[in-house]
Amino acid sequence: MLNAMGWCATELGDHAKANQHCHAALALLRDHPDPEVEAATLDSLGYIAHRSGRHRDAVAHYVRALALFRELGNNSQAAGTLDNLGRAHVDLGERDQARAAWDEALRLHRAQGHDGVADRLQRQLDELASSC
Prior knowledge:
Layout: H1 2-11, H2 15-31, H3 35-51, H4 55-72, H5 75-91, H6 95-111, H7 115-130
């Protein structure tokens, strides 16, 4: 619930409150481990950091979330995290890292039949390549 509250708070533009909620969720997870919730909360922290302009922090959170999603075999969530990771890399000017994240996200979304998202990712990759 704290993670969901954090997500909603950042959608409303209250990034400080969002951070508080998500960090409180992580603190609770130390006593009551749940890797799926931890991964989702780290992904939310990445989103909050990215929306706050803290792109390096966003990358760090997304990388940690991605590692957990991969361990859990949750390719659906991993694909979304990779998409967001690519966006953070773009904002840092790290085009090669963005391309790698989006390539993997594209493969995962195609494999899952998420053609609309895969098409958007392909356009992003095309735009990235053409802006070199």
